[in-house]
Write a structure and sequence with these properties.
- The structure holds three protein chains of three kinds.
- By secondary structure, chain A is of the alpha+beta class.
- Chain A is built from nine helices and 18 strands.
- Chain C has a single domain, classed as Orthogonal Bundle (MetI-like fold), CATH 1.10.3720.10.
- The longest helix of chain C is centred in the N-terminal third of the chain and has 34 residues.
- The radius of gyration of chain C is 21 Å and the shape is globular.
- Classes of the chains: A alpha+beta, B mainly alpha, C mainly alpha.
- Chains B and C meet through helix 1, helix 3, helix 4, helix 5 and helix 10 of B and helix 1, helix 3, helix 4, helix 5 and helix 6 of C.
């Protein structure tokens, strides 16, 4: 176990940003802290880094309680959303910073610093840009430099705060795949914060879903997606239709759009609906229907299926859930409204 | 960044011992270098009690110095206010390149030594000056007379109003004026009802600065005045005269009046800065034209 | 625009034209005397030293005022502007009174053998007072706008607070410091009212160039005064260009991409 987080609490003013968070992170893991803004994920990350202090609880890093440990001694690599590069230094000098900042007795000889930095430049594929300044680089390049800079000090833990949040969509996708590969190469315990569930599902070994200062669920991406533990997790990880209580019981039913079957004939658990629109959602077709009580649901099917049905707006179709989730208690705050399914 | 706090954090804070030392150093330095001279003026003025003020004001030379200073300010400040506003509006709306040149030009009286400024006017209007033949022919005296004081003060206080307004106008942009123009308002109405209220605090501060310099100007008026006691001595010059006569108490008494002016300027700065920041915060929370056009409060 | 040209350009061209009607010989004669040289050395030297000292103290004050919270901070912040708001004659007699041999500070320095009034040191002290606000007000906004995450990042990478200050924070402040220095220097060389009372104005010892100009005017040596003024104007103009360039550098540096 490399990082143990025990019952961390943090209050800012009158609000509880973290209300008793506990978590265990294994050596070499790539973990995502996922949640909406304000859920406490960034604060938790900063507490682990030592940039904030918790009001109560402890963080144990490699069998050492980090309370009272100075920032410099923690050997934590931190990457900020807006890179925080040193603008007056070149790319090379940025990466070398942590090594050159060490006290003399601890500092490697200059030749070694140079070779280490060059190796990192190769790793981030920016060897030719070593002499450039940050403002001459693109956003994606800057973030790679920030990562290399954090890696230069050979940290035991790598922490990334919404590392791709400031980048274009395309660059984001490329860079998160690249991060996954680098992690596979280096094997450093990594923790990253994101509000993008797609990113978390694609990159992480395990996901920690947070909401309102608490952990809602921890698990591997497939598990969390297929078996969401709470309505919040279900809604947050991908779009979901919330069907009102019906034959399936007295509680609401959560069904994902692509886990519904469309048919012209009625089925035993099917629900009848009237098609309101049909559009293309990339590789799939999106069919929106209005069902009982003027509620709307979204169904994603393959284009072929939609064509076979010859469905047009106004048609009556039947919708059968293939897989669904129900929850015993619905917390008062989680009031499902007709627009819930598209609220994400 | 709604989760991060604004209180001191480990990565950004200096150790407490260092903080305390630096604060003590800073306070000591300011007290020694800035506060002490200021306080010494007051204590010296009151060294012989409040009667010093009575005597100094009873002195006809002192009274005329005060009146002259007030007269010069009364002429210079309104003129430079009007001109400053007009200039600022013009400069803030010119193209980028021309604007830099104009801003430098506006700054010129500010960056020139006051003595050189005074010399300029002596060369123009003094004996053997450019305009001298014409002036003597018409019996007009400028140098060593009140008109010279007015002109020299006009020159050195020229930039103050404009300098305060130009950056503000640049950052505010023209949207509101354009909206009003599209709604059919006349240029005067636009200026009076839209431009002026938006710049009123910066304008007020510029006027106060202009006035402070107009009343307190020394170098430039010293050159053009001729130091004729009772006739062309402004208050700062009168202070100098008293000082040279070794009448230190009276000199400090008169100086304390001017020092009070300095304090008023500082207070005005604090108030207007707060107001400008307040206004800026309100503007940033506006959604464009909504609050203006529909009278909603932000 | 016509008002501007009348009030600004006409007097300026007068000076230039007047100096043109002076031939080179007279010009150099007016400038080349040992008295002028001494005055120039004093004016530029004292302004330089004072601006330099103000750069250090200005950095200290700006840092303390921007980064720390303590009782009386607002008052201290307002105090920084006092030298700028106070009429120069008031500053002049205040400093003269304070550093005279019977003044509050002069009294303390005399047993140590340090004399401030009527010496070059007095000129420096006066310029120190006058130049204080320039550096503080130039650097303060930059300090307030510093990106905290950059400092946090340096700390995470293992730098001490001192190393971070030297290698990360200070370089970011350099353009503003240089700009403030230049402005304090420019103000210092032209300063008149604050200096002449404490200086004593002893020729070749504690006489500044502006005073020399006034002295020549009083003797109706217009040519001599103008020659000196033209020299000062040239330097002022060059400084103004330098200040603008430095402010541009500053603006480019700390505007975020």
């Amino acid at each position: 176990m490399s990082i143990g987080i025990h019952n961390i609490r943090k209050r800012f003013g009158t609000s509880d940003v973290l209300a008793g968070v506990s978590l265990q992170i294994r050596t070499g893991e790539l973990v995502a802290l996922l949640g909406p803004s304000g859920c406490g994920k960034t604060t938790l990350l900063r507490i682990i880094a030592g940039l904030e202090t918790a009001d109560s609880g402890s963080v144990v890093c490699y069998d050492q309680d980090t309370r009272g440990q100075s920032l410099r001694d923690r050997r934590v690599g931190f990457v900020f959303q807006h890179y925080a590069l040193f603008r007056h230094l070149t790319v090379f000098e940025n990466i070398a910073f942590g090594l050159r900042a060490r006290p003399r007795h601890n500092r490697p000889p200059e030749a070694e610093i140079q070779s280490r930095v060059n190796r990192l430049l190769d790793l981030i594929q920016l060897r030719a840009q070593g002499n450039r300044h940050p403002d001459q680089l693109s956003g994606g390049q800057r973030q790679r430099v920030a990562l290399a800079r954090a890696l230069a000090i050979e940290p035991r833990v790598l922490l990334l705060d919404e590392p791709f949040g400031a980048l274009d969509a395309q660059v984001r996708v490329e860079l998160r795949r690249w991060l996954r590969q680098r992690h596979a190469d280096l094997g450093v315990t990594t923790l990253f914060v994101t509000h993008d569930q797609e990113e978390a599902l694609e990159v992480a070994d395990r996901i920690v879903v947070m909401n309102g200062g608490r952990i809602e669920q921890v698990g591997v991406p497939a598990e969390v997606y297929a078996h969401p533990a709470t309505p919040f997790v279900c809604r947050f990880l991908g779009s979901v239709n919330v069907l009102p209580a019906s034959a399936h019981g007295s509680s609401k039913v959560y069904v994902r759009p692509h886990e519904l079957i469309l048919s012209r004939q009625a089925t035993s658990d099917g629900i009848s609906g009237c098609v309101t629109s049909i559009s293309s959602a990339g590789p799939l077709a999106r069919v929106e229907l209005e069902i009982a009580n003027a509620e709307h649901i979204e169904v994603l099917v393959a284009h072929d299926t939609a064509t076979e049905l010859h469905a047009v707006p106004g048609d009556a179709l039947f919708v059968t859930p293939k897989r669904w989730h129900t929850y015993e208690e619905e917390p008062a705050s989680e009031t499902a409204s007709p627009t819930d399914a598209w609220a994400i | 960044m709604s989760e991060t706090s604004t209180h001191p954090r480990p990565g950004v804070s200096d150790p407490p011992w260092l903080r305390n030392i630096l604060i003590v150093l800073a306070v000591t330095y300011l007290v020694l270098v800035v506060l002490l001279p200021f306080v010494s003026v007051l204590t010296q003025a009151l060294a012989r009690g409040f009667s010093t003020y009575g005597r100094a004001l009873a002195d006809p030379a002192g009274r005329s110095a005060i009146l002259l200073t007030l007269l010069v300010a009364a002429i210079v400040v309104p003129l430079n206010t009007i001109f400053g506003v007009w200039l600022a509006l013009g400069v803030a709306r010119t193209r980028q390149r021309l604007r830099r040149l104009l801003e430098t030009l506006v700054d010129l009286p500010f960056s020139v030594s006051p003595v050189v400024a005074g010399l300029l006017f002596v060369l123009l209007f003094g004996r053997h000056g450019w305009f001298d033949p014409w002036l003597t022919a018409h019996g007009i005296h400028i140098i060593f007379a009140v008109p010279g004081l007015v002109l020299a003060t006009l020159f050195v206080t020229l930039p103050f109003v404009a300098r305060e307004l130009i950056p503000l106008l640049e950052s505010q942009g023209l949207e509101e004026e354009e909206a009003a123009a599209l709604l059919g308002a006349s240029r005067w109405r636009i200026f009076w009802r839209i431009t002026l209220p938006n710049i009123k605090w910066a304008l007020l501060y510029g006027v106060i600065l202009c006035n402070a310099r107009a009343m307190g100007e020394f170098g430039a008026v010293s050159v053009v005045s001729g130091h004729i006691r009772g006739r062309t001595n402004t208050l700062p010059l009168h202070v100098e005269t008293l000082f040279n006569d070794y009448d230190f108490t009276a000199a400090n008494a008169m100086a304390s009046l001017l020092a009070a002016l300095g304090v008023v300027t500082l207070i005005a700065r604090a108030i207007t800065e707060w107001q400008i920041a307040h206004t800026r915060r309100n503007r940033e929370s506006d959604s464009g034209l909504d609050s203006f056009a529909y009278g909603k409060t932000p | 625009m016509s008002y501007l040209s009348l009030v600004v350009l006409v007097p300026l061209s007068a000076i230039v034209l007047k100096s043109l009607s002076i031939d080179w010989h007279t010009f150099w004669g007016a400038i080349g005397t040992s008295r002028v040289l001494a005055a120039c050395k004093l004016t530029f030297g004292a302004a330089f030293l004072a601006a330099l000292a103000n750069t250090f103290s200005g950095l200290l004050l700006a840092w303390v005022l921007s980064r720390y919270r303590f009782p009386g901070r607002r008052l201290l912040d307002a105090l920084v502007d006092l030298p700028f708001a106070l009429p120069t004659a008031v500053a002049g007699i205040a400093l003269a009174g304070l550093y005279a041999s019977d003044g509050w500070i002069g009294r303390l320095l005399q047993p140590l053998g340090i004399q401030v009034a009527y010496t070059r040191l007095g000129v420096c002290v006066a310029l120190l007072f006058i130049g204080l606000p320039f550096v503080v007000r130039a650097v303060q906004p930059v300090i307030e706008d510093l990106d905290h995450s950059v400092e946090e990042s340096a700390a995470c990478l293992g730098a001490t607070r001192g190393y971070t200050f030297r290698r990360v924070i200070l370089p970011a402040l350099l353009p503003a410091l240089a700009s403030g220095f230049a402005m304090a220097f420019a103000r210092g060389i032209g300063e008149y009212g604050s200096v002449i009372f404490i200086a004593g104005n002893i020729p070749k010892v504690s006489e500044i160039v502006p005073l020399l100009i006034v002295a020549r005017l009083e003797q109706f040596d217009y040519a001599g005064a103008t020659a000196l003024a033209v020299t000062m104007l040239t330097v002022s103009f060059l400084l103004l260009l330098a200040i603008n360039a430095l402010q541009d550098w500053n603006r480019r540096r700390y505007v975020r991409n």
